[in-house]
Amino acid sequence: MEFNAAEYGKYIFPVLLVIMLIEYLIAKDRYHLKDSLAGFGIAIVAALIAFTTKAYAVSVFFIVFEFTEPLRQEFFGYSTLGWTWWAWVLCIMGDDFNFYWHHRLSHTVRILWAAHVPHHSSNNFNFAVSIRNGWFITFYKPIFWLWLAAVGFEPYMIGSALIINATFQYFLHTQTVKSLGWIGKIINNPYVHQVHHSSNREYLDKNHGGIFLIWDHVFGTYQDVIKDIAPKYGILKDPKTYNPVMLNLHEFRDIFRDVRKAKSLKEALMYIFGPPGWSVDGSTQTARQIQREMKLKEQIA
């Protein structure tokens, strides 16, 4: 059974906007006009870019799917995994696994962080934040999904799994949902996702999962909300602007400045592909360095 993404999108987008409006009406203090307008500005351009890049991504999925079909036939004895219910389950799980690593690397590789940072630059946490998708994300994101096409998942199924995951994540960006107990440690939810959007030292680079949190548990990046440590939303290097263009470009600008002052090729490459915050002289620190220093101080105390 093929998932009709076009029909789905026609109905879901108005619903998502209505949900955002309802949240605004019951929690106006969680919205800031200039910040929300910046989010909508980012979202409109991101949607226009995604319209082209997603069509390109599905085309690439088809190319990989067709190119690898003889290999599947020869080594595994099938040409496609088809549209069965279990194929859907496996595809959604595979999609979420991909999302975890794409998302985690978008926080730990600086050039990818530069593309992802607009989503985190808001000092608020609401449904308007969920639509702040960086303009350059979709140019590299499909790379992480190519293996799904190679092993035989239908390209339209892969695209549909991406849409399902993205829709689920929309509902993660609200403060109106409290702890879900043990279920909230397995299925992603707003209470835990606020950790991911926080700039507190304890919360940096945690909870990268999309639908499921099992990947965070397995790979050591899960963090629950800590008692008495309220999340502080935003990023460490606040760009202090509501300009959608600058919100998408400020980290690329900073990378360019750092590369210009690099004294070797290795330094230049580290400023591009190293973790955000890395510096030669230690004047700025990575999330791991900050957390390591914090733990050392706690042990001494």
In summary, what is this structure?
The protein has 301 residues and is an all-alpha fold.
Sketch the major β-sheet: none
The amount of beta strand, in percent, is under 5%
Shape: globular
> Which class do the helix and strand fractions yield?
mainly alpha
**Uncertain spans:** none
How far apart, in Å, are the first and last alpha carbons?
Answer: 60 Å
Radius of gyration: 20 Å
Query: Which H/E pattern describes the elements?
Result: HHHHHHHHHHHHHH
List the main descriptive attributes of the protein structure presented here.
14 helices; mainly alpha; single chain; 301 residues
Give an account of the 3D structure.
This protein has 301 residues and is mostly helical. The chain has 14 helices and no strands. The radius of gyration is 20 Å and the shape is globular. The mean pLDDT is 93.
Task: Spell out the blueprint of helices and strands.
Layout: H1 5-26, H2 33-67, H3 69-75, H4 85-108, H5 110-116, H6 127-130, H7 137-140, H8 146-150, H9 155-170, H10 190-196, H11 214-218, H12 244-261, H13 265-273, H14 287-300
